[in-house]
Write a structure and sequence with these properties.
The chain folds into 2 domains: 79 residues, Arc Repressor Mutant, subunit A (Orthogonal Bundle), CATH 1.10.10; 206 residues, 3-Layer(aba) Sandwich (D-Maltodextrin-Binding Protein, domain 2), CATH 3.40.190.290. 44% of the residues lie in helices and 22% in strands. The protein contains 12 helices and 11 strands. α2 crosses α3. The longest helix is centred in the N-terminal third of the chain and has 25 residues. It starts with a helix and ends in an 11-residue tail after the last helix.
Length: 295
């Protein structure tokens, strides 16, 4: 079994079609079909179920597929190691929470781009859950997520601290007005958002029952719904302050044990620390730890 065989497996699985996979590989369909059949003979079991509408992975194919991504990442790491002479260059793939990307990352990315112009920066936003998965599967070199993560395969270090606030419609003067409510709507980022469970716990401690959350992919949508009185959310103070100063929302302070949370940078423990990533971490690390925006 060779990496080239697993790459064909991944492309066929992604397209669900031998013909479309052949187009991506710049070959004919018969060659792709032959490679897959040869691979199936090597492993001793069928890897795809065939039908008129295309192909789908069997259970065995699904178990084999992740090795294609792992080998691709290992080969990429080997090439980078061979070329790494201590000067940051190449591509750096970084993940970030939506709020961190809006408030914390711009000056950091600007400083890094100016210091290391030979590095191409690719930034992906997502929830803590999705970003952790992306780092573990080596789709990202590292990511800013809400901590602590405490995963055996990851190295994490705190880079800045957030102060969270409960954000409500502007007419709500005090959090006590929410106490005892039933079916209160919470407005959060999609599933995997680190603040979702934290917000539910804060409200539960006040005897507030929540309804099915509303999920959005942008800060503007979340704050717009809160301003309209649809529900409440939990966000870092600097995110909410412009909306609070304009009178569009009300921002309520929380006890320190509920308000403070660290944003950490995570990377894979087993992956070599490249000069490119080391230089990025040197700029991102605070000295000393201080309050800043993010999540």
């Amino acid at each position: 079994m060779e990496y080239a065989d697993l790459r064909v497996l991944e492309i066929v699985a992604r397209h669900g079609s031998m013909n479309r996979a052949a187009a991506e590989l710049h070959t004919v369909q018969s060659n792709v079909t032959a490679r897959i059949r040869a691979l199936e003979e090597q492993v001793g079991t069928a890897l795809f179920e065939r039908s008129r509408r295309g192909v789908v992975l069997t259970a065995a194919g699904q178990r084999l597929l992740p090795y294609a991504a792992r080998l691709a990442a290992l080969l990429r790491e080997a090439r980078e190691a061979a070329c790494d002479d201590g000067t940051p260059r190449g591509t750096l793939r970084v993940g970030s929470l939506e709020t961190s990307a809006a408030l914390r990352l711009p000056p950091l990315l600007s400083a890094y781009a100016q210091a290391y112009p030979e590095v191409g920066l690719l930034v992906t936003t997502g929830t803590s859950g999705s970003l952790v998965a992306d780092v573990l599967e080596q789709r990202l070199d590292g990511a800013f997520v809400s901590g602590p993560v405490q995963h055996a395969d990851l190295i994490e270090e705190a880079v800045f601290r957030e102060e969270l606030m409960l954000i409500t419609a502007p007419g709500l003067r005090h959090m006590d007005a929410l106490d005892g409510q039933r079916e209160l709507k919470i407005i959060v980022f999609r599933r995997g958002c680190s603040y979702r469970q934290r917000l539910e716990n804060i409200l539960a401690q006040r005897g507030i029952q929540t309804a099915q959350p509303l999920e959005f992919g942008s800060l503007e949508a979340i704050l717009g719904c809160v301003a309209a009185g649809v529900g409440v959310t939990l966000l870092p103070k600097p995110v909410a302050m412009p909306f609070w100063r304009d009178g569009r929302v009300a921002a309520h302070e929380l006890p320190p044990e509920q308000a403070r949370v660290d944003t950490v940078f995570i990377r894979r423990r087993a992956t070599r620390l490249t000069s490119t990533l080391a230089a990025f971490l040197a700029i991102a690390r605070p000295a000393p730890l201080k309050l800043a925006a993010g999540s």
